[in-house]
Structure formats: structure tokens, C-alpha cells
Amino acid sequence: MDEKNRIQEELLVLRCQLGDADAYKVLIAMMEERLFFYIHHLVPTENDAYDVLQEVWVTVIRKIKKLLHPKAFRPWIYRIAHDHAINLIRHQIHQDKIQESYAEESISNEEDPFPDPENAIHIHHALKKLNLRHRQVLMLFFMENMSYEEISQVVRCNMGTVKSRMHNAKKELRLLLEGEDAGRK
Questions:
Q1: pTM greater than the 0.85 cutoff
Q2: Where in the chain is the domain with CATH 1.10.1740.10?
Q3: In 3D, which of 2, 44, 43, 8 has the Cα closest to residue 29?
Q4: What does the pLDDT profile of the chain (185 residues) look like in tens digits?
Q5: What is the DSSP letter of 111?
Q6: CATH 1.10.1740.10 fits 1-107, yes or no
Q7: Fewer CB under 10 Å: which end of the chain, C or N?
């Protein structure tokens, strides 16, 4: 994010902290698409992503006045998104375990065929195969242009762990993409 946009974001956050409803509208319009994109790559379905996004904005509206430094807004909102997404995933895993204990037979999930390699979906499909920790550092770094320090704030771990996850995530993604290319030849 360039300096002009960072300053604009900080001013919007300050206006939101003062209760300016128009500033909330602008901030939501400015952030919503990218935030949704990040969340959608963490949770299983698009509907889940919309649910999490709504929870994120409710939390932001309720707690933005407590944010001490407007400059910290971007990592703060992504941490909120991360936490809500993880809570949804945990809840779903818990519900799945309950359902499995009552299920009479397991349901097999067939994977969709791999999409056209010339489409951007190719990379997104490969991203979905990464584990959550690897997927989220890649998304925050490449899609949100966050620094390792900002990513460490979002995912709540030290910078060394972020660097390690980033290294392993890039390696794993490269292998997935190469494997898919070989499978199509």
C-alpha cells in the first residue's frame, strides 16, 4: 500500500473513531473486497466467507474506538478476520465430529477436476490445497502486501515463525503447481 492510501486509511479510522458514519461507509467500501478475498481463502465456502466478513465488520464497528494507533488498523482488522475465520473452522470441525458420531455411513467427497491452467483459478485452486497456516501467510504477503511484522501480528506468532511458514508455503505451492502442470501434459 502506498503512503497516500495509508494516510487516507488512517484518517478514515480516526473519523470512524469519532463516530462519522460516512467514514465507515468509505472504509468498508475500501476494504471489503480484499478482506473478503482473504477470508474466502481461509474458510471452506463463499457463504462462510460472507458470514465471517459480516462478523468482522460488526466487531470493527464495536471496537474501533479502542484501537490506539490508526496506523495499526490494517493488521488489526486482518487479525479480527483471522480470528473469526478460525473460530468458524473450529466450530465446523466440532459440528462435523458430532455428526460423524451419529452418521450411519460416511459420505465421500469427490474433488472437482482441475480447472483450465491458463486461468487464475489455477493458483487459487493450488492455494486451497495448502494448509491454513501456509495459505494465510501467502495471502497476507502477496495479496495484502503486508510485511512479515504485520503478518506476525495478524497470525499471532513471532517473525521467525512467519518467515519459516512463508518459506515452506512457497515451496509447497511450487510443488503443487509443478505437479498439476505435469498431470496435464
A1: no
A2: 1-107
A3: 8
A4: 688 888 999 999 999 999 999 999 999 999 999 999 999 999 989 999 999 999 999 999 999 999 999 999 999 999 999 999 999 888 877 676 665 554 433 333 333 333 344 546 777 788 888 888 999 998 898 888 899 999 999 999 998 899 999 999 999 988 888 876 655 55
A5: P
A6: yes
A7: C
